[in-house]
Amino acid sequence: MIKLTGKQIKYWYKKYIPETIRIFTRRLIPFWVEIRYFYFKTKKFNYEIQGHGEANKLLEICRELNISNGYYVDIGASDGWSSSATFPFAKNKNFSGLSIELDDKKFKKMQYIYKDFEKIYLSNSKVTPLNVLNIFKDFDVPQNFDVLNLDIDSYDLFVIKKLLQDYQPNIISMEINEKIPVPIYFTVTYDEEHFWKGDHFFGCSLQAAYEELIKFDYKLYTVLYNNAIFISNKMNIKFPNFTVKEFYENGYVNKLDRKEKFSYNNDVDILLEMSSEEAINFINDKFNNYKGKFQLESRN
Fold first, then answer.
1. CA gap 271, 181 in Å, rounded
2. N or C: which end of the chain has fewer CB within 10 A?
3. pLDDT on residue 37
4. Backbone angles phi, psi at 86, to 5 degrees
5. What is the largest distance, in Å, between two alpha-carbon atoms of the chain?
6. Taking the CB of residue 66, how many other CB atoms lie within 10 A of it?
7. Rounded distance, CA 160 to CA 215, Å?
8. Crossing angle (nearest 10°) for helices 104-113 and 31-41
9. Cα(156)–Cα(7) distance, integer angstroms
10. Measured CA angle at 124 (ends 120, 128), to 5 deg
11. Nearest 5°: phi and psi at 98?
12. 18 and 136: one domain?
């Protein structure tokens, strides 16, 4: 008798059951059933599989900086567990923090699994450059807190620039638009009505994040695929002696599993082989439907 593992069953299910049927079937499942199954899954957190190692790297940095208790903020926290960079901090009794998520369903899932975390506050809010400081003040976020995670798939750069005017987190982990190569400065510009449509148009390039954060006395510490981690220059830690291009190549381009993890980037991988001028033209054409909604320049 052949025994199938859960991974094999999942593979065959996805291969032979049409996506439309899978979606229809999932919609028949009551939310209370879904949320309890989700709660059961959160009993384990796989640092290697969930996300791209951001949580593990943040914990490693905190150990090096002797941060054993503190405060975190997660902007765009999703359900608080799947691909989360801050779940290990949220469940740590030595940490307090604030997790912010706009999507109602994801927020309710996070609310359910975080209900026993005594020092963690949740906000079902849309974060913009206009309200981020008020949200922080409403929840009494310390000015010099420890860990910030930012992932809102839109005008992230404008939010972080506004936030850093009044607050100085020791460590910043933020999503970047990994498909935009160095030295291209790209960012979605602020428009409160904008939302991510599931395409390549979101966030900012590593070049843009780097240029803006160094103005606030931060240094780039590492790149993990589509996440960049910056650390305040005031912290006692040894920074790698890499150029921005080297960070990008080491953290994304030359990763052996990049094409597997980011298969949805196949149609834009050609950017990695282009000159800056060619890349600018390609991106302008690719984002033709978003004219006037982004900033795009070469830093050659």
1. 7
2. N
3. 74
4. -120, 0
5. 64
6. 7
7. 12
8. 50
9. 35
10. 110
11. -135, 125
12. no
Decide if 279 contacts 268 (C-beta within 8 A): no
The answer to whether residue 31 scores a pLDDT higher than 80 is no
Q: Is residue 46, in this structure, part of any structural domain at all?
A: no
109 and 33 in a common domain: no
Query: In 3-state terms, the chain is what percent helix, strand and coil (to 5)?
Result: 40, 15, 45
> pTM, whole model, 2 decimals?
0.89
Structure tokens at 80: 């608080």
Residues 108 and 25 in one domain: no
Number of domains in the chain: 2
CA–CA gap between residue 163 and residue 169 (Å, rounded): 10
Each residue of 155-209: pLDDT tens digit? 999 999 999 999 999 999 999 999 999 999 999 999 989 999 999 999 999 999 9
Task: Write a three-state SS string for 34-76.
Answer: HHHHHHHHCCCCCCCCCCCCHHHHHHHHHHHCCCCCEEEEEEC
pLDDT band, very low/low/confident/very high, at 45 (cuts 50, 70, 90): confident
Domain residues for 19? 6-41
User: Is the four-CA dihedral 239, 242, 244, 246 of positive or negative sign?
Assistant: negative
The CA distance from 142 to 144, in Å, is 5
Alpha-carbon span 86 to 83, nearest angstrom: 9
Measured between alpha carbons, how far is 150 from 171 in angstroms, rounded to an integer?
11
Tell me which residue has tokens 């922080």.
136
